[in-house]
Input
Amino acid sequence: RWGIDKICAYASEQSGVEVRIERFRLSPLLDLDLQGVVATNPDTLLAVRHCLVDLDFGHILRGNIGVEAIDLEEGAFHSRDFIATTQLQGRVGQFHLAAGNLDLKEKIVHLSSVALHNSTVDIAMLDTTVVDTADSNPLPWRVLIDDILLTRSSVVFHQPGDSLRVGGEIDTLRLTDGDVNLAEGRYSVVRAEMLCPCLQYDQPYKPLTDGLDYNHLKASDVNLIVESLLYVEEGTRVSARILQGQAREQSGLELCGLSGSLQLDEQQMTVSYLSLATPHSHLSGDVQLSWTALTENAGGYMTASLKAAVAKTDVALFVPAYADYLPKNGLTADLSLSGNVDTLHVDAQHLLIEPMLAARAKGTLYHLLDPARLSADLKWEAESFDLSELHKMLNLPSSVRLP
Output
């Protein structure tokens, strides 16, 4: 018992939390086999049935602890108030950590690899208007991780008040060169690769809509490769460079190609070098918008420069109210947009609606989200071809003939 007390006292002093161990065994090869490990402060932060640690005690004299490997089995964790604006909790099936180094003076952990299998992770952002973050006690640690592998596990992210949920069931998630700065609330990875059978983005207090519902997205067969991924807690800032993306959304939209650079925060989003493809459509360009530009009578502003060749089936998912009025062969466009959903300025340098017409247009659209008030003030230069399809789209009587 004397050995257990010494280990617990040392771990408690260095970590700032109370550590308890039921049993331990030290092998001649310095494998530390721990049973019933619990860390509290004062609530339970970590409880693990079995923990195997391979240590290099020679580093202790230099103020470091060399960790060859740590293996955990069957445990639970909760960050409590160690991160000022975020709480992490979940269940551990199997956890493996290899070849790391702990600098106690600088409070930096450098790990070679981390693997998590058959586990659950719940990440909840705290409402700073309710929680006094000045009294919280965030860990002043920085964790550098060369390789992170998550398999057969689930991850869920919550905004305050459960106003936003993002999560899914993950087959494989590999992160390269991770940097977790708990003191600054800054998290980054150089590269991320994910295979995910189910991924959801849900704003539960928003009403359901037909077609592609931006507030209730659910995708399957997700395949994503991202570089330079950054998340900063302050301002909920996210940036990433997407190299590859495929998914099938529950509305019927199938994404077979996605790339581009993304920057977003609580106020706006910027997408550069966008390339998006479905089996029948393709879209490329640049977009910058404030989120309020997508809400009626909320102001906000957006600009976009787009080149698109889109099929009727894909367009109908975005504007289901106009599905009966869309050309069956879709459309090709090269256009610039600016404004918001109340007043949108359009400059279409090229517009082709096969087999009906080719055109150029410039002007303004009004009330895009209200079919009853939708109107336009546009100047056209058009060349018509076969307009019989337009006759069907507008459901004109047979007495009306189009040239």
Q: What stands out?
A: DSSP finds three helices and 21 strands in the chain. The chain has a mean pLDDT of 85. The first strand starts at residue 18 and ends at 26.
